[in-house]
Amino acid sequence: MKIESITLREVQMRLKAPFETSFGVSHNRRIILVEVVADGVSGWGEVTASETPGYNSETTDTAWHVISDFVAPALIGKTISAASECPALLAAIRGHEMAKSGVENALWDAEAHIKGVSLSKLLGGTLEEIASGVSLGIRESPLALVRRVEEELKSGYQRIKLKIKPGKDLEYVAAVRKEFPNILLSVDANSAYRLEDAAHLGRLDEFRLLMMEQPLNWDDIYAHSKLQAQIQTAICLDECINNARHALTAIELKACRIINVKLGRVGGHSEARRVEHTCRTHSIPVWCGGMLETGIGRAHNIAMSTLSGFTLPGDVSASKRYWNEDIIEPEVEVTSKGTIHVPKTPGIGYAVRRDRIEQLTVRTNNWNSQRTAA
Ligand code: OSB
Ligand code: MG
Fold first, then answer.
1. Pairing of strands 258-261, 235-237
2. Is 26 helix (H, G, I), strand (E, B) or coil?
């Protein structure tokens, strides 16, 4: 595969409704899309960085800078035999996993198209249908949250995750659990608590949660190991895990019993497969997290979720929960059983709507390799 061109596009898209987490509210998304052309074939990827450095240290603008000044120059014109060789070419760039992931994943899509196979198949995935859950932002009242949960359950979603933060936790979880005693229910704190809050967090044990996601500092695996020893609820790490080494550290320290895999956070499909493998060999279940993606990022998440270690419902849900109109065709849909059918057509398996992307684009950057005579 010769990497002939790389194009960045920043699109701006308004979420249907604001999404509130412990670190802020998201409404207007600024998303970088990556298109690569290899051997004349296009592949697409999405950079999942947020607008602000509240989730991790990357932002839309840091990713634009790092791809433009380091990632694209390191790849343009290179010939690789597979997308899995991409991380080696980017090894000199520390961190910036989301920036690298957007480009690497576009190469995986291109490779799947060149080989005429689905991305799921190329990755080694086996599931034909994946289980879908939803992540619900912080609400103004427990009652408003309960109503929202009811709607999502009616649509068929298999697991409900509630965003929590200090002052918006016990009361909300208690209200939802009281109304729905038997659903799969999780919480996600996005690093809003400290180890000193262990007794408070232990009060969530009575609600029989499937997991408590990333309660403590975004970069502190050790503190989570101290907390896990003090509470019954299974801790799931999100922000702390940027690669398979981190996953192994967390598992050996008993800092969590479940891991959330996000393609952007771990740097792309190659490392995501390693994280999945590390977890599977240690009997740690994984599931696919979400970052309020467009259909392109969503399609990559669906393909990754077909690996056999993904045994819990993910945060990958229907396009229409986020966007009035997505940038892929068909849009991602969820069945009444709360599943998503995995496309079998080549690449990500959804058509990219160039017309719509064109309308939403606010800036572009492009690299072309020197065409060599045949
Ligand atoms: O921690 O999983 C998270 C959204 C933005 C940043 C971090 C997270 C989330 C979500 C939303 O939970 C998942 C989604 O619906 O895409
Ligand atoms: Mg999370």
1. parallel
2. strand
What are the pLDDT digits (tens) for 295-314? 999 999 999 999 999 999 99
In the chain, what are the domains?
Answer: 3-116+352-368 (3.30.390.10), 122-348 (3.20.20.120)
| CB-based pocket (< 6 A), ligand 1 | 21, 55, 135, 188, 190, 238, 289-292, 315
| Band of pLDDT at residue 231, cut at 50, 70 and 90 | very high
Neighbours of 324 (CB within 10 A): 10
Nearest CA to ligand 1 atom 13: 290
SS3 244: helix
Whether residue 131 contacts residue 338, with contact meaning beta carbons closer than 8 Å, is answered with: yes
Name which of 249, 177, 185, 252 is nearest 213 in CA terms: 185
Q: Which residue's alpha carbon is at the smallest distance from atom 7 of ligand 1?
A: 291
Which amino acid is residue 263, in one-letter code? L
Q: Is cis: bond before 330, omega within 30 of 0?
A: yes
The two structure tokens encoding residue 315: 């945060």
How far apart (Å, rounded) are the C-alpha atoms in residues 36 and 297?
A: 15
- Residue whose CA is at the smallest distance from ligand 1 atom 9: 291
| Torsion of Cα atoms, 59 then 60 then 64 then 66, to 10° | 20
- Active site positions, annotated: 163, 262
Each residue's pLDDT tens digit, 357-369: 999 999 999 999 9
CA of 164 to the centre of ligand 2 (A): 11
- Please state the separation of Cα 178 from the chain's center in Å: 30
